[in-house]
UniProtKB/TrEMBL annotation:
It comes from the Bacteria. This is VOC family protein. InterPro entries: Glyas_Bleomycin-R_OHBP_Dase (IPR029068). It comes from Paenibacillus thailandensis.
Amino acid sequence: MRFREAVLLTSGLNRLKAFYGQVLELPEAPGGAGRVAFQLGGTKLVFKEAGPGREPFYHIAIHIPENKFDEAKVWLKSRVALNKVEGRDEAFFENWNAHSVYFEDPAGNIVELIAHHRLNNRTEHPFSSADLLGIAEIGIATDDVVSLADQLHRLGVPDWREGSGDFAPLGDENGMFIVVREGRQWFFSDKDAEFHPVEAVVEGLGTIKFERDNIRRVAHSG
Protein backbone atom coordinates (compact mmCIF):
# COMPACT_ATOMS: atom_id res chain seq x y z
CA MET A 1 0.00 0.00 0.00
CA ARG A 2 1.47 3.33 -1.05
CA PHE A 3 0.40 6.79 0.03
CA ARG A 4 0.37 9.25 -2.86
CA GLU A 5 -0.99 12.14 -0.77
CA ALA A 6 -1.76 12.82 2.88
CA VAL A 7 -3.77 15.84 4.06
CA LEU A 8 -3.51 16.76 7.74
CA LEU A 9 -4.96 19.69 9.68
CA THR A 10 -2.80 22.19 11.56
CA SER A 11 -3.01 25.44 13.48
CA GLY A 12 0.62 26.24 12.63
CA LEU A 13 0.67 26.59 8.86
CA ASN A 14 3.48 29.18 8.70
CA ARG A 15 5.62 27.34 11.24
CA LEU A 16 5.29 24.10 9.30
CA LYS A 17 6.06 25.84 6.02
CA ALA A 18 9.35 27.07 7.49
CA PHE A 19 10.17 23.80 9.24
CA TYR A 20 9.58 21.35 6.42
CA GLY A 21 10.97 23.69 3.81
CA GLN A 22 14.02 25.09 5.60
CA VAL A 23 14.90 22.61 8.36
CA LEU A 24 14.05 19.35 6.59
CA GLU A 25 14.79 20.91 3.19
CA LEU A 26 11.78 19.43 1.39
CA PRO A 27 10.67 20.90 -1.94
CA GLU A 28 7.41 22.79 -1.73
CA ALA A 29 4.53 21.52 -3.88
CA PRO A 30 1.29 23.20 -5.01
CA GLY A 31 -1.10 23.33 -2.08
CA GLY A 32 -3.85 25.86 -2.71
CA ALA A 33 -5.42 28.49 -0.47
CA GLY A 34 -5.11 27.82 3.25
CA ARG A 35 -2.67 24.98 2.64
CA VAL A 36 1.03 24.29 2.38
CA ALA A 37 2.39 21.18 0.66
CA PHE A 38 5.71 19.40 0.26
CA GLN A 39 6.89 16.61 -1.99
CA LEU A 40 8.13 13.85 0.26
CA GLY A 41 9.51 11.28 -2.13
CA GLY A 42 6.51 9.51 -3.59
CA THR A 43 4.04 11.26 -1.27
CA LYS A 44 2.65 14.77 -1.36
CA LEU A 45 2.33 15.90 2.25
CA VAL A 46 -0.31 18.61 2.66
CA PHE A 47 -1.07 20.66 5.76
CA LYS A 48 -4.45 22.40 5.81
CA GLU A 49 -5.43 25.29 8.09
CA ALA A 50 -7.55 23.86 10.90
CA GLY A 51 -9.37 27.04 11.85
CA PRO A 52 -9.55 28.92 15.17
CA GLY A 53 -9.72 27.04 18.44
CA ARG A 54 -8.30 23.79 17.10
CA GLU A 55 -4.86 22.34 17.86
CA PRO A 56 -4.68 19.08 15.91
CA PHE A 57 -1.63 16.84 15.91
CA TYR A 58 -0.88 13.50 14.29
CA HIS A 59 1.59 10.67 14.15
CA ILE A 60 3.23 10.06 10.79
CA ALA A 61 6.23 7.99 9.77
CA ILE A 62 8.53 8.65 6.83
CA HIS A 63 10.44 5.99 4.88
CA ILE A 64 14.22 6.21 4.68
CA PRO A 65 16.55 3.81 2.82
CA GLU A 66 16.88 0.55 4.72
CA ASN A 67 20.67 0.83 4.95
CA LYS A 68 20.83 4.50 5.97
CA PHE A 69 19.37 4.56 9.49
CA ASP A 70 22.57 5.60 11.26
CA GLU A 71 23.31 8.32 8.71
CA ALA A 72 19.73 9.55 8.79
CA LYS A 73 19.80 9.77 12.58
CA VAL A 74 22.97 11.90 12.51
CA TRP A 75 21.45 14.11 9.78
CA LEU A 76 18.22 14.52 11.75
CA LYS A 77 19.93 15.14 15.09
CA SER A 78 21.75 18.14 13.60
CA ARG A 79 18.35 19.72 12.84
CA VAL A 80 15.92 18.73 15.63
CA ALA A 81 15.79 17.40 19.17
CA LEU A 82 15.12 13.68 19.14
CA ASN A 83 12.42 12.18 21.34
CA LYS A 84 13.76 9.90 24.06
CA VAL A 85 12.38 7.11 26.23
CA GLU A 86 14.41 6.08 29.28
CA GLY A 87 17.49 7.64 27.70
CA ARG A 88 17.05 5.87 24.36
CA ASP A 89 16.63 7.92 21.20
CA GLU A 90 15.91 5.09 18.75
CA ALA A 91 13.89 1.90 18.56
CA PHE A 92 14.27 -1.47 16.85
CA PHE A 93 11.12 -3.47 16.09
CA GLU A 94 12.22 -7.08 15.79
CA ASN A 95 8.95 -8.42 14.36
CA TRP A 96 8.93 -5.67 11.72
CA ASN A 97 12.72 -5.73 11.15
CA ALA A 98 12.76 -1.93 11.27
CA HIS A 99 14.66 0.86 13.02
CA SER A 100 13.00 4.15 13.96
CA VAL A 101 13.84 7.56 15.37
CA TYR A 102 11.27 10.15 16.51
CA PHE A 103 10.87 13.91 16.87
CA GLU A 104 8.12 16.53 17.02
CA ASP A 105 7.56 19.26 14.46
CA PRO A 106 6.59 22.82 15.51
CA ALA A 107 2.86 21.97 15.40
CA GLY A 108 3.28 19.02 17.76
CA ASN A 109 3.05 16.26 15.16
CA ILE A 110 4.95 13.14 16.23
CA VAL A 111 7.16 12.31 13.26
CA GLU A 112 9.12 9.09 12.82
CA LEU A 113 11.84 8.17 10.36
CA ILE A 114 11.68 4.43 9.75
CA ALA A 115 14.03 2.06 7.93
CA HIS A 116 12.22 -1.15 6.96
CA HIS A 117 15.09 -3.53 6.32
CA ARG A 118 13.04 -5.88 4.13
CA LEU A 119 12.33 -3.15 1.58
CA ASN A 120 14.50 -2.95 -1.52
CA ASN A 121 15.36 0.75 -1.22
CA ARG A 122 19.01 0.82 -0.19
CA THR A 123 21.23 3.58 -1.54
CA GLU A 124 24.98 4.16 -1.60
CA HIS A 125 25.18 7.98 -1.67
CA PRO A 126 25.36 10.13 1.49
CA PHE A 127 22.01 10.66 3.21
CA SER A 128 20.12 13.88 2.44
CA SER A 129 16.55 15.19 2.43
CA ALA A 130 16.13 13.51 -0.97
CA ASP A 131 16.21 10.21 0.95
CA LEU A 132 12.98 11.00 2.76
CA LEU A 133 11.17 8.60 0.49
CA GLY A 134 7.49 9.00 1.34
CA ILE A 135 4.90 8.50 4.05
CA ALA A 136 5.20 5.08 5.68
CA GLU A 137 2.51 5.43 8.39
CA ILE A 138 -0.45 7.61 9.22
CA GLY A 139 -1.84 7.31 12.73
CA ILE A 140 -5.61 7.26 13.21
CA ALA A 141 -7.15 7.47 16.69
CA THR A 142 -10.59 6.08 17.38
CA ASP A 143 -12.75 4.97 20.29
CA ASP A 144 -13.33 1.61 18.55
CA VAL A 145 -10.20 0.13 16.96
CA VAL A 146 -11.88 -3.11 15.86
CA SER A 147 -14.75 -1.31 14.11
CA LEU A 148 -12.48 1.11 12.26
CA ALA A 149 -10.17 -1.74 11.23
CA ASP A 150 -13.20 -3.61 9.87
CA GLN A 151 -14.17 -0.56 7.81
CA LEU A 152 -10.67 -0.47 6.33
CA HIS A 153 -10.87 -4.20 5.56
CA ARG A 154 -14.04 -3.55 3.55
CA LEU A 155 -12.14 -0.95 1.50
CA GLY A 156 -9.46 -3.51 0.69
CA VAL A 157 -6.83 -2.61 3.31
CA PRO A 158 -5.40 -5.79 4.89
CA ASP A 159 -4.00 -6.33 8.37
CA TRP A 160 -0.23 -5.97 8.54
CA ARG A 161 0.25 -7.67 11.87
CA GLU A 162 -2.22 -9.03 14.39
CA GLY A 163 -4.00 -6.18 16.17
CA SER A 164 -5.83 -5.71 19.44
CA GLY A 165 -8.49 -3.49 20.93
CA ASP A 166 -5.82 -0.81 21.45
CA PHE A 167 -3.62 -1.03 18.36
CA ALA A 168 -3.94 -2.30 14.80
CA PRO A 169 -1.47 -1.81 11.92
CA LEU A 170 -3.14 -2.15 8.51
CA GLY A 171 -1.55 -2.11 5.07
CA ASP A 172 1.96 -3.38 4.40
CA GLU A 173 5.60 -2.34 4.71
CA ASN A 174 5.16 0.24 1.94
CA GLY A 175 2.38 2.08 3.78
CA MET A 176 0.22 1.58 6.86
CA PHE A 177 -2.63 3.07 8.77
CA ILE A 178 -1.75 2.76 12.46
CA VAL A 179 -5.12 2.58 14.20
CA VAL A 180 -4.98 3.18 17.95
CA ARG A 181 -7.40 3.65 20.78
CA GLU A 182 -8.06 7.31 21.49
CA GLY A 183 -6.23 8.24 24.68
CA ARG A 184 -3.49 5.65 24.18
CA GLN A 185 -0.03 7.21 24.50
CA TRP A 186 1.87 7.43 21.25
CA PHE A 187 5.15 5.49 21.25
CA PHE A 188 8.22 7.63 21.97
CA SER A 189 5.98 10.52 23.04
CA ASP A 190 4.21 11.84 26.12
CA LYS A 191 1.10 12.65 24.06
CA ASP A 192 -2.14 10.70 24.14
CA ALA A 193 -3.71 9.95 20.77
CA GLU A 194 -6.55 12.20 19.66
CA PHE A 195 -8.80 11.86 16.65
CA HIS A 196 -8.41 14.52 13.96
CA PRO A 197 -9.64 14.25 10.37
CA VAL A 198 -7.30 12.75 7.78
CA GLU A 199 -7.49 12.49 4.01
CA ALA A 200 -5.22 9.98 2.27
CA VAL A 201 -4.80 9.15 -1.39
CA VAL A 202 -3.82 5.48 -1.60
CA GLU A 203 -2.49 3.95 -4.80
CA GLY A 204 -5.10 1.56 -6.20
CA LEU A 205 -7.76 2.51 -3.63
CA GLY A 206 -8.33 6.20 -4.22
CA THR A 207 -9.04 8.94 -1.69
CA ILE A 208 -10.03 7.83 1.80
CA LYS A 209 -11.40 10.37 4.28
CA PHE A 210 -11.35 9.64 8.00
CA GLU A 211 -14.06 11.51 9.87
CA ARG A 212 -15.26 11.00 13.40
CA ASP A 213 -16.52 7.38 13.61
CA ASN A 214 -16.64 7.08 9.84
CA ILE A 215 -14.51 6.34 6.80
CA ARG A 216 -15.50 7.43 3.32
CA ARG A 217 -13.88 6.57 0.04
CA VAL A 218 -14.62 9.61 -2.13
CA ALA A 219 -12.77 8.52 -5.26
CA HIS A 220 -11.23 5.42 -6.71
CA SER A 221 -8.15 5.05 -8.85
CA GLY A 222 -7.27 1.90 -10.75
